[in-house]
Every structure is written in structure tokens, then in C-alpha cells.
Design goal:
The chain is globular. It is mostly beta strands. About 5% of the residues lie in helices and about 60% in strands.
Amino acid sequence: MRKLLTCLLIFSVALLQAQETGSIVGTLTDKEVNNEPLAFANVLIKGTTKGATSDFDGLYEIANVEPGTYTVVFSYLGYETVEIPNVIVESGKVTTINAPMSASEGMSLDEVVVTTTARKDSEAALLLDQKKALVIKESIGSERLSKIGVSNASAATTKIAGVSKSEGSGDIYIRGLGDRYLSTTMNGLPIPSDDVNNKNINLNLFSTNIIENVGISKTYSTSSYADQTSGNVDISSKSYSKKALSVGLSSGYNTNVLGLDGDFKRSIATEDVTLGFHKKQYALVDLITRQGWDPLKQKNTGNYDISLSGAEKFEIFGKELKVFVAGSHSKSYQYQEGVFRSYRSNVLDNEFTDAESFSSRTNTTGYLNLGLKLSDNHRLKISSLAVNTSNDNVYEQGRNGEGYVFDQDPQEDGAFVRDQNFKQTILLVNQIEGVHNIKENNKLTWAGGYNYVLAQEPNRIRNEANILDPNTVQYAHVGDFQQRKSSQKIEDTEYNAYINDAISFGALDEYDIHKFKLNIGVNFRQKDRVFSSLFAGVRARDFQVPTVDQFSETFTADNFDNGLVLREREADRYDADLNVIAGYANLDFHFGEKLSGNAGVRFERDEINVLWDVANFVGRVGSIKKEYTEIYPSLNLKYALNEKNAIRFASSLTQTLPEFKELAPFEYVSPTGRVTSGDPNLEKSDVLNIDLKYEFFPSRGQLLSATGFYKNIKNPINLAQTRGSSGNFQYANTGEKATIYGLEIEARLGLLKNEDEESILDFNTNITKMWFNQDLSEFFQYKNKTESDLQGASDLILNGSLSYNSKTEKEFNATLTGNYSSDKVYVLGSPEDFNNSDVLYNDEIIEKGFFTLDLVLSKMLTKKLQLKLVGRNLLNPDIQQTQLIQDLNTGVESDKVVLSYKKGAQLNLSLKYNF
């Protein structure tokens, strides 16, 4: 109730979203010389001193224009001066005026092209921001996301240079560095993780109907938290731009699911679920007998998505209130089939050649943005996001009777495993921001956020058995928890805030920009987690059933009077908190027309506390306290060779803090049986970052760039296999240092133009090549291996897309997108026996590289109705993890597949209507 009241309070406090300024941009051409770009022409807003001069490409921009209607004056020495009346500038948007000029004819109004686009989601506007920025950053806006058929923020990031996604974990990797090395923000404020296994939130939760753009900053500035090494992912959420109402409907199928002919499975827990919301009926121990153990059949397995968004303005107390709302509900189904194996000391520990996974995902999202301009100098802005997502999974292996588990009782052969799990996550993100122009040269900004996450697994069911013959299945009984039901709950609460005072000083340049701007500010963050996990097991020794689909017949009240034994144990728990407070100062500077940059320093204190009570820790109870107080400097330089070419340099010191789940010794078991736990002895990593980038902007909307980068990581954190067990992974400082050298190349080019000189065929590509190395401490050395690649790092990442746009009234778009990431280390290896580490070891597991291909076709049937066909993962590659295994008799190593599956191609047809 307290959280609900907090949300309602935040909604009602603010009549509140900033009415931003707009801008006027465009291209001037010279009719006297075959419409070549016209440089050094003057553009002025009549009746004001605001104006600009066109550059060598004929481009100009008048920024920070208050919303209104203006007359724009174009002039050039010896040419006719022309006035364009009734030019409308809207808040947060770009008004584009492309105009030809002539010495004698002047220009007629029908020759002038005036359009208005949303600044923060326009591809050209984002590229212009990238060109002007003092730091190295890249963004992808909703305009481009729509063209390439991206449905969420996770997929959006993989279209940016140097970004890939692990299919094994779902983590995003920037420049080869994974989840723990990056940070995620929404509108510049931290947002929490929805998963105990991740530091960053699952970006799949952010559907594109609430995204304005997704930006990745690969270099560091001291106004940000220091806990980032590879970069920061910032999701800019949508706000009001104009009056609008749109409805979208989508339907489709996964090709793997189509082949099941009605045999798709869902967990028994879904009986208590409505539209993705679970309602608990019984306590965990009562679920043993009051709810079944066998999965259910799902009849309808078609994917669907319904979305609605709208924007409107209202007058309240003489003020203009702006409202933007969006909501969506979707459900999708996925089926995977493959193999799973694990080895211990080069000996097969278990093997299943028919591992199956039935997954269904439901997502409901609500977003509200309100705003009010308090005065010309004082604005407030609020964003509030609510997400409910559920993921139901039924995992089976061994149904074919060929499963194998080493040393299992009653026998090793005929092993069968089923794991049913329904996960529900409720996420609330609430943010408020203020912008205050204290003086002409003094701007104060502040923001605060309240985040809440509730992630639950209310009734996870696991059965392990042996198929003795076609009519006899006997429960496995190595331990008392091989037949079990469990529940898990994570509750995160976070408060965060910042305040920044920007003081501009020094002489004004020709664009009325001061040469220097000093930013002084503080950051605050407090994050608390309460985690609990409860198991209820059943000892079912010698009990048998006819088939693996009749387990529910065993777990009855009568059988607990005839040999079944209920095993309960104390809940595993940990409480954790993170407290961060920091102060910083950085200086933006411009020396002449060529050199600009930003230099700063940050003082930050981080404190992490974890208190646990878990069964797998000796004595159960323990605690740790980690305190880090450091100075973090950063330097970003930009040297403009000319209007089209620039060189950038960046250097900084950052850190990587260990996460709660990496510190707490709780063991989490995946459906396959892999176990992951934290290490209380883990320490943070310190990182030196250096970047050198060359940028070339051939013309508006086009880019060629090359970036070289270097990272030196002290005490790198990796996920590694542990000694003494098969399939057990643990986070560890695996060595003293790691180094990364990399090269990124990006190109955005127009290949074909129409008769109006508009680009209709575009090609975008980015290539990242990396060389990395880390030393290994003696605890992770085996067969004379003293060095390794970084966990999760691909040495080659390729992204590319080819897009066609008809540029007609009823527009037709076609985009083909491809992505490739090479082999990466999924988990590091380790010795089983230090004295015989040349033979008794568990080698690293490699996630093999693969190529994906997507196709998007869209057509405007009318001015308001759009039809879109999207095909994702069309090649449906085999996704594999492999491990080198040594034959103990011959000493010969061979590559064994330890996990494989195919995701299936996704085909969707959608309609969108804009009222």
C-alpha cells in the first residue's frame, strides 16, 4: 500500500512536464550551380537576434527556439533575400526548411520544403547531436527502430557498433564486456534489475512504443556514476510532441511452435495466472498435495500484441498541461529442442539428447508523462512507468529414455528431469526533473527517482526420475530434494537523485555560446534488496508411476501416510544495500573553432553491505561490508579538422563494483541443473579507459568513423567453474589484470537517390574487432594454461542493414538487417586437482558464434493506416556451447557440444492506425 500511495503521490504532485524548446534546421542549395550546397548564407528569425550561417554542406541550425510561429529570412550576398512566413516551431521537435536560392529569381514558396520531426527520435537529428557532442556517444531513435522492426530496447542496442547479446544469458555486451561492466539508466537516472542473475534490467521490458531513443555512451564523464567500464545504456522515454492517438495490433507465430501440433506445455502454476498476474492460492508446503505436479497443454500458441498511445494538451489554471500516455499488452510463445551435457574432470557427468523448453511470455506496460511549463525559466518534468512481465517455462530432458546421470539411484541410465517455473516481475519507475534558468549564464538542473521491483517465482516444480522401461518410471533418490517445490522472492527499493549547476562564462562565439561551462554537482543513490528462497522436498524412494506424465498420482495425502516423507528446511535469505554519494566538477571548453572538450574529476564513496543466512554456507549466517572511496578523473577532447572531419580522444578511470548476487553465497539452480553462486571475498575492479576516434560526415545523415580503444582492468571479475562439482559456477577475481585492444568502424551511407535528390536506399554497417587477454591466478590454471580470453567477449562483431524507402505519399519501406558475433567464453575453466591439473580439470565453455537475419516490410495503405510484416531470426541458426574434453586413455582432446538449441524464426503481421 505504501508503494501504491507513493506512485499516486508522484502522479499527482506534478502538473509537470517540461515544455522544451525546438530548433530550425535545413539545407540551402544554389540554383545557379545545379543545386550544389550553398555555404555561408545567412538564416535569421525575423524580429530576433537568433540566426545561423550555413556550412560547407549547406547545412544550418538555429537551436533553442521557443515554441511559436515565426518568419525566417534567408539572405546571401548578391542573391535575392527571401522570407518564409508561418514557420511553426514545436517544443522538443525539429522544424526542417530546405530551400534553394538564386541570384535573380529568388525562390517561390512551393520550392521550399518545410517538415517537422521529433528531435530526439529523428535519425538525422541524433546524428547531428553525435557530431556536436563533446563525448563519444551513439544513439538509435524510434524512427530507425520502426524501420528495422525492433520491438524493444534490448534488440535496439545490438544495432549499435560494438554491441552484442549473449543467447546463453541474455546479457548485453558492449565492446566485449558484459552485464557487470555496464550501467543502465532511464532519462539519466539509474533503474534496477528485475533478475537476481543480472546487474542491469532486462531491456526486453521496454517496448518501442515508449522509447524515444536508446543511447550508448562508451566513454565516461564525471557527472555519471563511476560504476561503468564498457559504457552506459540510457533509454530516453517518450513525451508529448503533438496531439495524437494511435492503435496497433499484431499477430504472428514462432516456426518452432508451429510444428508442435497442439503439444505445447505450460506449467501447473499458470492455473493461478490471469493476463500475466499470479494470485497465490496456497502456502508452499500445501502446494505439495493441493496442486498437481504435471504440466498442462496450451491450445492457442499464436503471438499477439495490442498497443495504444495518445497525446493531448489541456488548460489548467491558465497553464498548458501536456499529457502523453502509452499502454501495451503482448504474449509470445517459444519452443526449443536440443542437447545438454556436462563433464567433470573430463568425464561425462550427465547427458540428454532431447532437451526441450516450452516458454510463454506475457508483458503489460503502462506509461504516463505529464508536464507544465511553470515559467520561461522554470520547468518540471515527470515520467512514470509500470511494467508487469511474466515468463512461464517448462523444461524437460530425457523423455526419450536415453538420459544419463552419473551415480544416480536407482540407475544412471534412463534419467529424466522436468523443471516448471513461472516468474513474474512487477517494475515501477518514477522520475521527476527540474530545469531552472537562474541567470542567462546559470542553469540549474535536478532530478530524483523512486524505483521498486518485485520479482517472484511462486511455485517452481522440479522432478528427477529414471525411466526403467516403457511402463515404469521410478523417482530418483540421491537426496531428499530431487522432488521439490520452491518459491523465490526478490524485493528491491531504490532512491536516487542528482543536482547539477552549470555556469557559462568567457567570450561568446558567433553562435552566442560561451567558451567555457563549469558543471558542479552531486549524486546520491540508495538501493536495498530483500531476497528469500524456500524449498519443500519429498523423499519418494521406491515410488513408481507408469509414465513421466503421471507424477501427480504420487504426491497425495494418502501416500504421505504410506512412505512419502516431506522435507522442509529453513528459508535461504539475504539482505543487501548499496549506498553511493558523490560530488563532481567538470569543465566544457572551446578554444577557437577547432578544439573543444570536457575535463572533470569525481569524488565517490560506495558502501555495500550483505547479510545472509543460507544452507550452503558453513554456519549458514555471515555478512560482509565493502567500502570504496576514490577519485575518478575524465578527459574528453574533440579537434575539428574542418566542417566534415573531427578527431576525438577520451581517457578516464572507472570501476566495476561487485553485485549483490555476486557477493551473496546463495546457490541458484537453472533448469538444466547448472548452479551459480556468489563469492563473499570478491573485490571491485579498477579500469583505465582510452579511446581515439576519427569521424567523417560526408553529408547530412551520413557518417564514416573509426575508433581505437584500450582498457586495462585490475582484478577482473569473471564467471568460472568451481572445483569439486559438475556444472557449478561462481563469480571470482580470476587474475590480477586484463587488457583489451579494439577497433570499431562504422558507416552510414546513402546509395541511391530519387529525382528530388532524396536518399531512397541506405546502407548502415559497423564492425568491431577486439584483442583481449587476462592472466589467471593459480586457482584457475590447468594444463599449463596461465592466460585466457575475457568471459563473454567476442573478438568480432558485425552489424549491417540495407534500407529502401520509396519517399512517396503512401510510403513503402523494406529493411534487411544482419548481425554476427564470434565465439565467446561463456564460463572460465578451473583445475579439479592442482597436483594433476594437466588431466583433472574442467575446461572453459565456449558459446559459438552465429549469424542472424531480420526482414521488415511496411506499407502506408492510407495516410493513417500502416501494414507491416516482420520476420526475425529468419536463418534460425543452431546456437551451441562447446567444451574441449580430453580422453583420459589417449590424451586426445575433442570439442563436445554441451548445449544446443534453435530459437525458431518469428513471423509477425501488424496494423497501426493513427487517428
